Amino acid sequence: MTQPEQHLHDPANVTNPEHASHHIVTPRVYAAVFATLLACTALTVFAADINLGVFNPIIALAIACFKGVIVILFFMHVKYQSRLIKVTVGAGFFMFLVLVTMTLSDYISRAWGLW
Amino acid sequence: MDSAIANPQAEHDTAEHEHVVLPQHRHHFATQEQQREAGSFGMWLFLLTEIMFFGGLFFAYLLYRNWYYDAFVTASNQLSVPLGAANTAILITSGFFMALAVWAAEVRKKALLVVFLIFTIVFGLAFLGIKADEYHEKWEKHHIPGASFDASEFINPAAFGLQEKPLAPDAAQKTQMFFFLYFAMTGMHALHMVIGIGLLFWLLARAQRGDFSAGYVAPIENFGLYWHFVDIVWIFLFPLLYLINRHPLAH
Amino acid sequence: MSAPNPTILNLPDQRTATMPHRNFINAEHGLLSWLLTGDHKRIAILYLISITFFFFIGGAFAGLIRLELLTPQPDLVSSDTYNKLFTMHGIIMVFLFLVPSVPATLGNFFIPMMIGARDLAFPKINLLSWYLYMAAGIMMLTAMAQGGVDTGWTFTTPLSTHYLNTHVITTACAVFIAGFSSIFTGLNFIVTIHRMRCPGMTWFRLPLFVWAHYAASILMVLGTPVLAITLVLVGLERIFGIGVFDPTKGGDPLLFQHLFWFYSHPAVYIMILPGMAVISEVVSTFARKRVFGYTAVAFSSVAIALFGFFVWEHHMFIMGISNYSALIFSLLTMLVAVPSAIKIFNWCFTLQQGSITFETPMLYAFGFMGLFTIGGLTGVFLGSLGMDIQLTETYFIVAHFHFVMVGGMLMAFLSGVHFWWPKMTGRMYPESLSKLAAVVTFIGFILTFMPQFVLGYLGMPRRYHAYPPEFQVLNVLSTAGATILGIGYLLPMLYLAWSLKYGAIAGNNPWQATGLEWQTQSPPLTENFIEIPIMDHEAYDYDWLEHKTADEVTHVG
Prior knowledge:
The complex is a heterotrimer.
Chain A: H1 27-49, H2 55-75, H3 83-108
Helix pairs in contact in A: 1-2
Chain B: H1 3-17, H2 32-67, H3 69-76, H4 81-106, H5 110-140, H6 152-155, H7 169-173, H8 175-209, H9 218-242
Chain C: H1 31-35, H2 40-68, H3 79-98, H4 101-115, H5 123-146, H6 159-163, H7 168-195, H8 208-240, H9 253-287, H10 294-308, H11 323-351, H12 360-383, H13 385-391, H14 395-425, H15 431-458, H16 472-502, H17 542-551
């Protein structure tokens, strides 16, 4: 059952409130991100070989976060997407952080145990 | 109408009226753009569920790494950094080709799309191949958690030619926890990759038929999101599992 | 607005109403047209039938539990069987009834109509959701047939991983699959509500039903996957003995509880928010007044969802968590009660100076408001550490959650089913009989669960099938109430089925409610609207409704 093409008079603009434009990311950008990701991988391996004490895991995670962010922004196009998508991505990571930190609040503050 | 208001309105109207009507347009959506955005948003929500799904495993890792740090260090140094780093580079390359595939679909270049999808698959399979090799090595060394787990290598590393701190027997048993998390996290990741590669073959067949080079790019785009997400999970798994502490004797 | 040709421009009112020739039920024929449908309304009906089926199975287990508890001795069934009874009752009622009840039936049916859309964003995923639910249900029945599971619905480790040889993994798989059914429903709702509202339908013109479902959907999408990974870990622990929850191998059983309750607390809000959604609509319609404090109610739904993620540790106060984190979570638990209370206040103020009538949906809504308030307040008692240590794992907890879930959610579900029954089927249910059923349910409920509060603070533990003889009187009262409650739930089954053939024809809008779904025929067309509506008035605008019917031309030519 086909519907006739609806002329959408939508003064409050609810169907496409952010006019998310359709931006095509070029291979040049992808190549730059790719090179950065490979460089960061090499960096994280070299940093692991240097004894930096407690900073080793911090640096490793920082580099991993940076890599993740550029994959999200560029490979997954989030930089060019609507605010809704950006908030959605943020919400996901926020909830992950809630899971980790609030559960950790129990383990860290135990008077017994292995922490 | 007042000219100051009319022009942007008129531009807006013409932009809105450029309704692309593809054969894949579903009738409950008013415009193709709405359908595409809804699809993309839906895929992101699915990825949120994946973040929370892996999140439970990441927390378990965080907890037990802190509780049994020495055992985790010794066990982690059993993993091969060159293989892990190579796998990371391979997966990133696979992701790069997937991004290029999305671009090829958007600019309607069918041959390039097919080539890039093939490369994505090839590098994905290479990753799984190396993973299988690593798993096999663990099997041979009795490092798979369960009844056949053997921690003797960690009680007396020198006898096996390893430069590690020896662990007391009960601490050595905790290396099983590391290996459990290693297999659970990389195994879950590998499962997602296997599913992804299966979907890639299907997409490749459809791309070859020309389904995605006439303006309808949503499946390629949304699959790309999934594939990049799997890549991001590995980006975190690599340093957490392979690079805990490469200098245990120095501390 | 007058047309040149002789046409009826609006459908007749209820007194002269006829069933519409073409509607979503008779649009296509045959079993496959139902099993392969993309129509959200048909999927809602499929869900309605299946969850009713599982409700009665869960209810049967409840009946057996109450039967055993008539006497202090463990004389009806053995201990293991009793454990299986309360486990299966809990799992079926939570995962196969309460979680999908309102969202998958009324939400699926009415969210697209309320926002002026033709369908949900992803109709095929909607159908997949139902098939996943059925797969989960069949797997659950299989586990039952094989001998059931006796861990308690909470699957607590290390009992579930090390000390039982019942069908934990089958049941865990079933719950895992049911979880994905829930995730896909929530995902569908979020995308639909964000991206498919009709022109003019801004966020603050949405019915509050939609707001509450939006909040519940966020919980479904973000919370359920954590349950999924938890069940995977339980399965791996059982099969391979890896040690993740095993203290002898260095694992922490409390890790299971953290991950389990991280979902299962938001789960209770997943269950109750859609019920609150229904109550907002029903209270407004039968008080003929817009909901008092629309913005507050809308934001409180989202606040419940958000804060609901921060309080899960209150299920673990006696389990060995640190005192400091217990304090923090106790404080947060007090905070999460506030948005729920805001809603109750706002519904009460909606009633004030409203033009109230007492149709069946309104009776259930009144039941909800009273019983949910009692249940919710007892939740606040349980949130305070000192009281919880005394009351946890007793019948006080059992009474608390039955008050909010059965006295609250189930009453809201029945309220919604009765409220929207005319719209879904085109028929009215028999009003006197339904009022009787509502009153019987209310009386049965109070008799069943009020004594359990007393039993709880007197010290009767939960999940025990033998108890000291001094508790028998209260238990007998509770079982008597359960019998009455059972009758109260059976009656709607009978008269709603009866009404399908013999009920009075409903017409578009028998309640004279606002809301886009009431401005179309009953039952609706497959495509919901002949043309997409344009929303030009606020929600719950009874003035608009009055002027709409006053200005409308009924016959031309």
